[in-house]
Specification:
CATH architecture of the largest domain in chain A: Orthogonal Bundle
Order of helices and strands of chain A: HHEHHEEEEEH
Number of strands of chain A: 6
Largest sheet of chain A: 3 strands, antiparallel
Helix content of chain A: 25-40%
Number of helices of chain A: 5
Strand order of the largest sheet of chain A: 1-3-2
Strand content of chain A: 15-25%
CATH class of the largest domain in chain A: Mainly Alpha
Oligomer: homodimer
Number of domains of chain A: 2
Structural class of chain A: alpha+beta
Chain lengths: 139, 139
DNA sequence: ATCCTACAATGGACAATGTCTAAGTCAAGC
DNA sequence: GCTTGACTTAGACATTGTCCATTGTAGGAT
């Protein structure tokens, strides 16, 4: 069953059919869905679920740290259920495909104090851009 | 005068009052503006300039590689005239302030071939997240 | 200096994404 | 099985960005 669902239950979440469906969609093999894609898949399982609920639920999962938001392009935010294994992203600039990657090195350590301008730095995102094999072949 | 304007002229751009104004706004000391902020400042100098023109002009500057698009959050894209010096960004998660930073290290070299999945990797963006001094003090 | 024409600007409709609200519904504890 | 407050709903609204038909104009040609 859904690890995500287990963790959410353990945090005192009221368990509703809608939330269960959203969690199940995210836990499927299709990762990095947009909010509307999540909604479309959720509707397949629970036709009366509303768009607002999907947005709310995704937002709550993000707040709880169970799901990551990925803003890769000018289009919609995407949701990444792989929140518990740190990773970065590799994105195809043509078709928008996303892969999780695990580069070497520690970018946080690469930012010296004099380049922090007094900020409290809490995280870093690394986004590689390029073309996936199929798009590169089509180009 | 405007370096940006000079470069654009040199590329055979037809020089119009609107484009001049947009270039001047970007070349000012206020960097990382959103498209609508650029429009607001442009209207101060040229009241009849339209929103579509600002969007078009910014898009053209990005295509020519003279300006960078920065998609930092769920809000609007921001435009960075500092396209000719490679750099990354440090962003306050509360107020949205952005600083240019120059970390050590080479993230592109940190992505081994077996983590590239056949992609042609052409670039990398590094985004540090945290709180700026004023927001940290207010927290 | 004036004219032509292709390129640019305009403004308003439209699209995509996300947020909010008021009212109804339901999970979970008693 | 009640009660209660959190959850869901539908749709209006907000923001950001794009498109298109029309009008205007920069810059070369005459």
């Amino acid at each position: 069953m859904s690890d995500l669902l287990e963790r959410l239950r353990g945090r005192g979440w009221r368990m509703t059919a809608q939330r269960r469906v959203v969690a199940e969609v995210l836990d499927g093999d299709h990762v990095h869905l947009t909010a509307d894609e999540v909604h479309a898949r959720a509707v397949d399982k629970l036709p009366e679920i509303s768009r607002a609920t999907v947005y709310n639920t995704l937002g709550e999962m993000v707040s709880l740290g169970e799901v990551l938001e990925v803003s890769t392009d000018r289009r919609a935010k995407r949701y990444d259920p792989n929140a518990h294994r740190p990773h970065h992203h590799l994105i195809c600039g043509r078709c928008g495909a996303i892969r999780d990657v695990h580069p070497a090195g520690n970018p946080l350590a690469d930012l010296p104090a004099e380049e922090r301008y007094g900020f409290t730095v809490s995280g870093v995102e690394v986004t590689y851009r390029g073309l996936c094999p199929s798009c590169a072949a089509a180009a």
